[in-house]
Amino acid sequence: MSPADSAPDQPIASTESRGPDPAEILSALGQAAFVWELATDAMVWTGAAADLFQDIPAETLSTGTAFASLLEPSRAVRADALLNAAAAAGPNCVPYRIEYGVRAATSAPIVWIEESGCWHAGADGRPVRVEGVVRINNERHARDQQLLKLSQHDPLTGELNRINLVAALAEAIEEASRFRNSLCFMLIGIDHLSRINDSFGFDVADEVICTIAQRVRARLRAGDELGRFSGNKFGVVLKACTIDDAHVAAERFLAAIRDEIVPTRSGPVSITASIGAISSPRHARTADEAINRAQEALAAAKHRRCGAFSMWRPNVERDAQRRVNIRVTDEIVTALNERRIVLAYEPVVDAATRAPAFHECLVRMRQNDGQVLLAPDIVPVAERLGLIRLVDHRVLELVVAELAAAPQMTLSLNISPDTTMDGDWWAGIESLMLAHPGVAERLIVEITETVAIQDIEEVRGFVTRLKKFGSKIAIDDFGAGYTSFRNLRSLGVDIVKIDGAFVQNIARSADDRAFVQTLIDLARRLGIKTVAEWVQDEESALMLRDWGCDYIQGRLIGLASQHRPWDRPAAAEPAAAGTAS
What we know:
By secondary structure, this protein is of the alpha/beta class. About 45% of the residues lie in helices and about 20% in strands. It has an 8-stranded mixed beta barrel, surrounded by 6 helices. α8 packs across α9 (about 200-220) and α14 packs parallel to α16. The radius of gyration is 40 Å and the shape is elongated.
C-alpha cells in the first residue's frame, strides 16, 4: 500500500466548490466594505470603493482623518457615532448606522452615503477597530428631505406651515427681546376668498392663494419669514421693523395684491387683502400673544373696509370689557348650576274683554347679593359670549314645569337665533313634550323677526316641527325687520307681536297709527292673530281694539312679575294689574 493510499481522506480543492467572493457580492450591490484601525487611523477598503467614491483619490480614503475631511454636514459625524455608542455600550461589538454626504470638491455634487457596521472594543472598553459597509443612498435621502420639507412647509404655497411659522415668530421675539430690538408680526387675510370658491371653484382659489404668496414673498427683505397661517391668511415676521416701517411694508403688500389682477385658468380675478399687525416685544412678549393681537387687528381692519391695514394698540375700555365678560360668564354659568335662573311672567290679555289670554315668560337671574338681573341685562351678554343656548335650555325646562303644574295656563317663551338651529334644544323639547302630555298645546314659542328673515327655509322647518307637537309660533318685534307678509304666510305662524316702538306712541303719532293699523289689517286678512306690545295708556288700548288687534300687553295691563299671577287670590288681581316688579 502506498503512503498515499494509507493517508486519511482529504478534501479536494476545487474552484467550482469555493463560495462566492464577498467583495464581488458587495460590488454587485453597489456597496463597499472597510476596516478602520483606530490606533493607526488606517482604513482598508474593498475594490468597489473606487466605483462608489469616483474622483476621490485613493490616499484620501486610506485614513479616517482624510476621509472625514470630505463629510457633510459635519466632519465629526463618524467619530460622534462611535463615541456616543461607546459611552452607553460597554466592551462589546456594538452596531451603528449613520448617514452623511461626500463630495470630491466644493463644486462637485454631493453624494449621500449610508454607513452601517459595528465597532470592537479594546481592553479599556473604547473602540479600537471598526468594520462597516457603505452604499450610495441618494434616492432615500431625497425622499427624506422631501418629507421633511412637507412637514415644515405648506404643500400648496411652499411657504412655512403654521407650526413652523409660530416657531419662527417665537424665536424672533426672543431674539428681539435679547438685543432690545423691535419686530412686527402681520396677518394678511385675503378678502372674500369664499366668493372665489363659489364663483370659480376651489382650484382657482388655490391659484389665487399661490399668486398672493409669491407677490408677498417678492417684497420681503432678507431674513423676514413668510408662512401660511390658515386657509385665507398668511403670517409675516418682519425683523428689525419699527411701527413706521410696518405701515410702509403693509402698504407695499396691499398694493402688490390689489393693483394687479390674478391670472387664472378661468380668467382674471381681482382680489384685495386686509392686514392686521402687532409690534413686538413692545405689545406682545410671546408668540401666542402676538398672534391673538394680530388677529384682533385684522378683524378691526376688515370691519372698517376691505383692503385696510390696522396696527394693534392698547385699549383700556376693551380690556375692561373683557374682564367684565369673564366675570359675567362665570356668573351666568354659576347661576345656571345653582338654579338661580328664574322666570318672570308678563300678562297678555284679550284687547276687547281684557281677559287673560296667556303669559310671556321672561328670564331673570338672582344674584348672590339678592338683586335680580332682568332679561336686557342677561340675554345680550349671553348671546355675545355663546351662553344663550344654555340659558334657553334652562328656561324651556322651567316653562314646561310651570305648564305641567298649572293645566289651565298658556305660556310663551322667547328663544334666541342660535337656539332655533340647536339640535340639543330640539332633543330637549321632544323629551319634555313626551314626558308631559298636553303641555305642547299650551306652549307658544316666540322667535324674533330677524331670525325669520335669515333663512326662510330653515325657519319653516323649525315652525313645522313645533306645530307637529301642537305648539304655536309667534313672531316677536314684528315691524323692526323686513319680513314680508308673503313670508309670514309661507311660514305658517300663528301670532304676530307688533314691535312696541311703533305701538307706544300711536296716540300721538299719525305715522305710527297708520303703520300699526296696516299691520293689524293685513294680519287679520291672513288669519294671523296680533299682539300689540308696550301699550302704555287706555287711549292706545281702545284704538287697538277698534282696529281689530286681538291681544295687548304692556304697562297698562301689568309688567312682568316673578310671582305666578294664577296663584293670586282673585280679589287681588285688579290691584296688582298696574304694578310692575
